[in-house]
Structure formats: structure tokens, C-alpha cells
Amino acid sequence: MTTKSDDDIKHYLKQQSQELDNMLGDGLTDYLKLGFASNFSGIMKLGYAIAIALTVALFYCGYQFFTAPEANQVFWGVLLILSFNAQVATKLWIFMQTNRNMLSKEMRMIEVRQRAWFAAQNAKMHE
């Protein structure tokens, strides 16, 4: 047995889900742009610059590993693995910051909507 209040909540949650889908946009690029929508956009730019530098280092170390004489392959192999791990860590940090920005924005929106919904419910009760 559902009440009108339950139906209102379901409708409200469905509406929020649609708005979240609209906020995410078309794909990964729109999602990653959300990382720059905060006060820490300079740090995000630095993170992307580090990721690009590590990509260059990764390809360079990979090339050197496959073309180096046998005596130097261990050295270049270790550098290849280290640059790969550093790049993975940097990209994880970028995604974590983007998620943090998106979640904090969504939580603020939910709080505002929740207050408005409760205010509307209180107004209905006092009529």
C-alpha cells in the first residue's frame, strides 16, 4: 500500500535522476570538465600536465626498453613500470577530484530541493 507521499517521493527521485543524467552530459569529456568547476581548477590543470608528461615518459621508456641493448633493458624496464604506476596514480587522483566536485555539487542541489520539498509539504499541512 503506497501513499501519496510515497508517490511524490518516487516522482521527485526520478526527476533528480534525470537531472543528474543531464548534468553528466554526453560522455567522459563532459564528466572530466566538471573537475575544473571548482576553486581548485589550477591544481587540476597541473594534474593534467603531469599526466601528459608521464604519458610522454611512458612511451619514451617503452621505446628505450625495446631498443636498448640487453645490459640496459632492466633499467629501462624498471623506469617503464614506474612511469606507468605514476601515470595510473595521477589519473586516479584526477578522477577522484572530479567525483568530489560532482558529488559536492549534487549534495548541495539535493539539500536545496529537500528544503523546498519539506517547506511545500509543511505549507500543505497548514492549509
Descriptive notes:
- This protein is mainly α and 127 residues long.
- The chain is built from 4 helices and no strands.
- The protein has helices at residues 4-24, 28-33, 41-67, 73-125.
- Helix 3 runs antiparallel to helix 4 (73-125).
- The longest helix has 53 residues, at 73-125.
- The radius of gyration is 24 Å and the shape is rod-shaped.
Biggest β-sheet: count, sense, barrel? none
Structural class: mainly alpha
Please tally the helical runs, counting DSSP H or I stretches of 4 or more residues.
4
Instruction: Report the sheet-strand fraction.
Output: under 5%
Structure at a glance:
The chain has helices spanning about 5-25, 30-35, 40-65, 75-125. With about 130 residues, the protein is mostly helical. The two termini are about 25 Å apart.
